[in-house]
From TrEMBL:
Gene encoding the protein: panC
List of catalytic residues: 33 (proton donor)
Residue positions binding (R)-pantoate: 57, 150
Pathway listed: Cofactor biosynthesis; (R)-pantothenate biosynthesis; (R)-pantothenate from (R)-pantoate and beta-alanine: step 1/1
Name this protein carries in UniProt: Pantothenate synthetase
Length: 278
């Protein structure tokens, strides 16, 4: 695996790389990230990943400074996964000037759920992803479904900007007890880690109710929220949305149940796509 810290070096290496599959990351990698690399390999001649903790997508009171930097271990995982090129720029390389030009998502997609709770987050995501797309120029890009709203926003950005990139959403990788793998799981105490699968179990209960015919959205969401609160969580939301744009579902829509909640000081997100239409 070749490691590039400069844009010119990466572009030169990719000039004859054939079809490129790209999976950007912020590092602190786990098996979920590795699955993105393996998916990219199935669709490309050369696989590129990136490690960059993007300041633009963190709010002023979020965990930018304490976000784990585990570069050596990350490189070992990427090389074992068959990544050909790693782009690992510093801030001066990716943001040589103050980034005053931003890629701003549609308010219909940005002003709800994660976007409402974390103002400016998705503008930071779309801006850095568009810069990385311009640098790497992949034909395929892989993103995990755990960040469901992020995936939706990036797909819409690619479509509206006419970027010649196929965006592939990769399934959530879970621990044996059902917890979605996340770089922030490491913030959990031992006791919190035993409780953490309750979030996915709550989502499963909502899915089961929909599959058996319940379509009372407000009641299902309220009951699920109450379950989490009784178990000691502080939910930001647990909601049933249309998969395509995360708006309120209409009859016949494919739906997804999304949740974000704090357990102690750690904020976790998760989602489940429902096999039954609304």
């Amino acid at each position: 695996m070749q490691i590039h810290t400069r844009i010119a070096s990466l572009r030169a290496a990719l000039a004859s790389a054939g079809r490129i599959g790209f999976a950007p990351t912020m590092g602190n990698l786990h098996a979920g990230h590795v699955s993105l690399m393996r998916t990219a390999r199935q669709h490309a001649d050369s696989v590129v990943s990136s490690i960059f903790v993007n300041r633009l997508q963190f709010g002023p009171n979020e965990d930018f400074d304490r976000y784990p930097r585990t570069f050596k271990a990350d490189c070992e995982k990427l090389e074992a996964a068959g990544v050909d090129h790693l782009f690992a720029p510093d801030e001066a390389t990716l943001y040589p000037q103050t980034q005053t030009y931003l890629v701003t998502p549609d308010p219909m997609h940005d002003g709800l759920l994660e976007g409402a709770i974390r103002p400016g987050h998705f503008a930071g995501v779309t801006t850095v992803v568009s810069k990385l797309f311009n640098i790497v120029q992949p034909q395929v890009a892989c993103f995990g479904k755990k960040d469901y709203q992020q995936l939706m926003v990036i797909r819409n950005m690619v479509a509206q900007l006419n970027l010649p990139i196929e965006v592939i959403g990769c399934e959530i990788v879970r621990a044996d007890d059902g917890l979605a793998l996340s770089s922030r799981n490491g913030y959990l105490s031992a006791e919190e880690r035993t409780q953490a699968p309750q979030l996915q179990a709550c989502l499963q209960q909502v899915v089961s109710a929909i599959v058996t015919g319940d379509r009372n959205r407000e009641t299902l969401e309220t009951q699920a929220r109450d379950v989490l609160i009784r178990q000691g969580w502080a939910p930001d939301y647990i909601t049933i949305r249309r998969q395509a744009d995360l708006q309120a579902p209409e009859p016949g829509d494919a739906v997804v149940i999304l949740a974000a909640a704090r357990l102690g000081k750690t904020r976790l997100i998760d989602n489940l796509e429902c096999p039954a239409l609304w």
